[in-house]
Amino acid sequence: MKELKLMKGNEAIAEAAIRCGTDGYFGYPITPQSEIMETLMAQQPWNTTGMVVLQAESEVASINMVYGGAGCGKKVMTSSSSPGVSLMQEGLSYMAGCELPCVVVNVVRGGPGLGTIQPAQSDYFQSVKGGGHGDYKLITLAPASVQEMADFVELAFELAFKYRNPALILSDGVIGQMMEKVELQPQQPRMTEEELIEKYGSWATTGKTADRERNIITSVELASEEMEAFNYKLQAKYKAVEENEVRYENYMCDDAEYLLVAYGSSARICQKSVEIAREKGIKAGLLRPITLFPFPTKPIQDIAKHVKGILSVEMSAGQMVEDVKLAVNGSVSVEHFGRFGGIIPSPDEVVKALESNFIEG
Amino acid sequence: MKEEIIIAGFGGQGVLSMGKILAYSGVMQDLEVSWMPSYGPEMRGGTANVTVILSDSRISSPILHEFDTAIILNQQSMDKFEEQVKPGGILLYDGNGITRHPERKDINIYRVDAAEEAAKMHSTKTFNMIVLGAYLKINEVVKMDNVLKGLKSSLPERHHHLLPLNEKAITRGMEIVSEVEV
Amino acid sequence: MDIKEIVKEENLVYKKSMVLTDKEMHYCPGCTHGVVHKLIAEVIDEMGIQEKTIGVAPVGCAVFAYDYLHIDWQEAAHGRAPAVATGVKRLLPDKMVFSYQGDGDLAAIGTAETIHACNRGENIVMVFINNGIYGMTGGQMAPTTLKGMKASTCPFGREPQQDGNPLKITELLAQLPGTSYVTRHSCHTAAAVRKTKKALRKAFENQQQKKGTSLVEVVSTCSSGWKMTPAKANDWMVENMFPFYPLGDLKDE
């Protein structure tokens, strides 16, 4: 049954986590995402679905509890904001190295350091380029609405298990704190151990039974040749992700002469900028990457063929713009516009930046 | 139809919950809605504001720098948001504690002395509903029965006995709001 | 007598536990790890819990512990074993879960995870190998290195003003309400080995009875790190380690 609610993005994450049958959540409070664990604790899902919810002593501990639960083949997640996600990078590198699926939510705030608690998008590099040590990637989804916050929890779990890799929901303080209408899916039961094995294979540590070999979750391999072979395997997996999982949305791009590229809350702002620009007679369009890794390289290349300039808009000093530039590879001029440190750009500012970069003089 | 509203005042005045009730009323009327608060330390004893957008089509930016309506409940917010009302837009304010009254001539200015009225009703908590009533009188963006449904949905069940008092406060706000000539 | 006449079932006095794999151990001669691995394997064997036990291995010399016990394992990042074990046990409460950690892992880089797992009373077994040195990385100072004891990062002996004091983490953990059984043993004599095994058995039984955290410390030698023969290392341990880390139960509830 369709259930329409008004809720914050953070609350939607928690509700969706319970409803899609998540087995466990481990986290540590940090603004602006504390409502996620608060909502879970208020719902007490351990009484209904059997979902485990635990407040850990740190983000270091939470990601390692996620590691333990994920190693048992369970659907386990955590959430945090920028400084906390920095602390999780060790665990995420290990999980990528062990090929463990999990979902991590980063409700980004401005940095560096303790920074601000206001929204930002300055963790793009950390999210899509690996973040921790070693050659690995996180499958990264960028929700732009409260509905997508809810929908992407299940999607992130699906992708994480399909590729046996951590998946990240890269949100920010705007999407986390704002309320919108959201349609929640009905409660799904948690998968049993047998169902998990049936669907994803028997690689998890559930106790070595007589009918199978031991399962060992590890990322250590001291023989360099074998470590290189494993790295090739990882790279092949990331290539498959790039080939199969690119998601994006176009807004008024068909006749666009100028293209904005923006994700998450910046994409919402840019949608308004497109409207304002069109009222002024500037044919602007917006491409919104929904997956940041894999990045929508090909769709941007295609649009680049018929536009005069591309403006990458982020609440950062210019991070995603590098991937946009790599995508078009010099075929058209690419510029960056951003506010950061917790400042959110206005739709008008974006239009002015578009004009000053490509149209005036 | 699209109405872009900022509600701004002190933390503790019920700014965020008033916005939430307005947004919920929009949901009841089958509108698209967004509610975007200021958050963090500034909420604690300082200024609080929330942007509410009601629209019959998909909402783009939830964060705005100009508004159709500004509902202003303290002097700091007056200083910040008077300029951000679109020409021809609405500025509704409570006169309590206001030392510099609005001066623009290209917008429609209304005043509701809600703090004073709430004191008369012996319930300071009705303050934000008096303001909401005043706004709905000026601009009926949502129908009264949807407001009552929205109120019910956004209040926790343990507070449902307060629904009649809140309804009374909304009605009172409608009665006492007045237009100000600059 | 022909050898075939000797090798008979009725003459069998000792047999390697089936829970131990056939992999040759990488530990140095005289190292305590091998003995403790064997004891855990025997306890798992005797309790009949091989199919439901999940081990969490550390970073340190025992990083490859998973090569030697025939059970499912997770290899944790340095110090994170108690958090990983928490995740495993919370998601699979019916399984038997233990962490196996050295002094650097448990008492330095993983102190927070150790204390909080014990304080929550996670229903797990923690096995703590304390040899007062970092053997894996070449003999650096550990949190439990004794005063005056030499290590490659305190080559003139541990000096508290410069290097801090040796940490009695086991005493600290015994204070926490979540721990039900905290005990300290060694493996330098046959009798000591038998006592250690009994302690491990009790710790696993506590987990079956959902008693909370059981911690078994084994004061151990590191012949290579200490630069002594195995026999000399045992003597040195008795003389120097035991006075500071006395053996026996610290808590049994």
What can you tell me about this protein's structure?
- The complex is a heterotrimer of chains A (361), B (182) and C (253).
- Chain A has helices at 9-19, 35-43, 59-71, 82-87, 89-98, 124-128, 146-163, 173-177, 193-200, 224-244, 264-279, 297-304, 320-328, 347-359; strands at 3-8, 24-27, 52-55, 76-80, 102-108, 139-141, 166-172, 179-184, 216-217, 248-251, 258-261, 284-289, 291-293, 309-314, 334-338.
- By secondary structure, chain A is an alpha/beta fold.
- Chain A folds into 2 domains: 3-193, Thiamin diphosphate (ThDP)-binding fold, Pyr/PP domains (Rossmann fold, 3-Layer(aba) Sandwich); 249-359, 3-Layer(aba) Sandwich (Rossmann fold).
- In chain A, helix 2 (35-43) links the parallel strand 2 (24-27) and strand 3 (52-55).
- The mean pLDDT of chain A is 96.
- With 182 residues, chain B is of the alpha/beta class.
- Chain B has one domain (2-180): Pyruvate-ferredoxin oxidoreductase, PFOR, domain III (Pyruvate-ferredoxin Oxidoreductase, domain 3, 3-Layer(aba) Sandwich), CATH 3.40.920.
- Chain B is 36% helix and 25% strand.
- Chain B is built from 6 helices and 7 strands, in the order E-H-E-E-E-H-E-E-H-H-H-H-E.
- Chain B has helices spanning 15-28, 75-81, 114-120, 127-138, 144-154, 163-176; strands at residues 2-10, 32-37, 47-55, 67-72, 85-93, 108-111, 178-180.
- In chain B, strand 4 (67-72), helix 2 (75-81) and strand 5 (85-93) form a beta-alpha-beta unit.
- In chain B, helix 3 (114-120) packs across helix 4.
- In chain C, strand 7 (179-186), helix 8 (190-208) and strand 8 form a beta-alpha-beta unit.
- In chain C, 52% of the residues are buried.
- Chain C has a single domain, classed as Rossmann fold.
- At the A-C interface, helix 3, helix 5 and strand 9 of A face strand 1, strand 2, helix 3 and helix 5 of C.
Order of helices and strands of chain A: EHEHEHEHHEHEHEHEHEHEEHEEHEHEH
What is Rg of chain A? 21 Å
CATH fold field value of the largest domain in chain A: Rossmann fold
Please summarize the sheet with the most strands of chain A. Answer: 7 strands, mixed
Helix content range of the residues of chain A, please?
Answer: 40-55%
Cα distance, first to last residue of chain B?
28 Å
> How would you name the CATH homologous superfamily of chain B?
Pyruvate-ferredoxin oxidoreductase, PFOR, domain III
Distance linking N and C termini of chain A = 56 Å
Which class of secondary structure composition applies to the elements of chain A?
Answer: alpha/beta
**How does the helix and strand content of chain B classify structurally?**
alpha/beta
